[in-house]
Amino acid sequence: MMKAFEIYLCERNLSPNTTRSYLFALAQFNREFKKVTKKNLQNYKIWLIENYKPRTVNLRLRAVNCYLESIGKASWKIPLIRVQQKPYLENVISEEDYNYFKSCLKEDGEMFWYFVVRFLTATGARISELIQLKVEHIRAGHIDLYSKGGKLRRIYIPKSLQNEALSWLGDKEQDSSFVFFNKYGERITSRGISSQLKRLGLRYGIDPLVIYPHSFRHRFAKSFLDRCNDIAFLADLMGHENIETTRIYLRKTSTEQRLIVDEVIDW
């Protein structure tokens, strides 16, 4: 059951993270309900709602629905729950804090982490995409990857970042292979990056709530729209299948909303 589903997911070219997540959800369903029946599927949905946040519930339901497709029971798919979107973005690093953070890293000689932050914010790459970056990609000025749905996505590396990174790599005498390794000489993991960024953010007095890899991807999108109001182009750059996903970046962050309210309302 699990092996056949894993093969099905691989054939669909889903990302490693999505594959792991979907396999986990199916294993969870099997553990709790043993057998795939319409009743058990509905009970699983109820159990998820009682134990998890809405976004997690929908992620697990998508996984089980994908499994139902794989066994020819697409008609049994479970409807997702409606997630109320907040009218603002939460926990996105400000452009000021981003500039301060990267400046501190550079001044302290933390060049590895400087470039982690720079690449995340200047390319809009997901953390799973960043760790696939090679010197050859920087030299070419872009990296081509397949998105979750099997669609080819090109991540562009801005010229200024390209030149700066090549200079750094030249000083290290590195002219090939992956860019970001851990202290053991192995390709760094998403978790390794996340935990270290938190520690560095605390070192420089930045709110830890805004220091996480996806926050820099959000910053990329917000800063891009501030300078180029082309949401369709941004959707392509972000690798979004649906432009509606990108529209969230038209919203203000809660901090920006607060500042506008304080400045505008004087009655």
Distance between the termini: 65 Å
Low-confidence stretches: none
Radius of gyration: 21 Å
Give the total of beta strands. Answer: 2
Query: Would you tell me the overall average pLDDT?
Result: 89
- Domain count, please report it: 2
Please write the CATH class name of the largest domain. Mainly Alpha
Q: What's the architecture of the largest domain, going by CATH?
A: Orthogonal Bundle
Large-scale geometry: globular
Beta-sheet strand percentage?
under 5%
Q: What name does CATH use for the topology of the largest domain?
A: hpI Integrase, Chain A
The arrangement of helices and strands along the chain is HHHHHHHHEEHHHHHH
Order of strands in the sheet with most strands: 1-2
Summed up:
This protein has 267 residues and is mostly helical. It has two domains: 2-76, Tyrosine recombinase, N-terminal domain (DNA polymerase, domain 1, Orthogonal Bundle); 95-264, hpI Integrase, Chain A.
Can you walk me through this structure?
- This protein is mainly α and 267 residues long.
- It has 2 domains: 2-76, Orthogonal Bundle (DNA polymerase, domain 1); 95-264, Orthogonal Bundle (hpI Integrase, Chain A).
- The protein contains 14 helices and 2 strands.
- It has helices at residues 2-11, 16-33, 38-51, 54-70, 95-107, 111-123, 127-130, 135-140, 159-171, 190-203, 213-227, 231-238, 243-246, 254-264, and strands at residues 142-146, 152-156.
- It has a two-stranded antiparallel sheet.
- A hairpin with a 5-residue loop joins strand 1 (142-146) and strand 2 (152-156).
- Helix 1 (2-11) runs antiparallel to helix 2, helix 2 packs across helix 4 (54-70) and helix 5 (95-107) runs antiparallel to helix 6.
- It is globular and about 60 Å long.
- The mean pLDDT is 89.
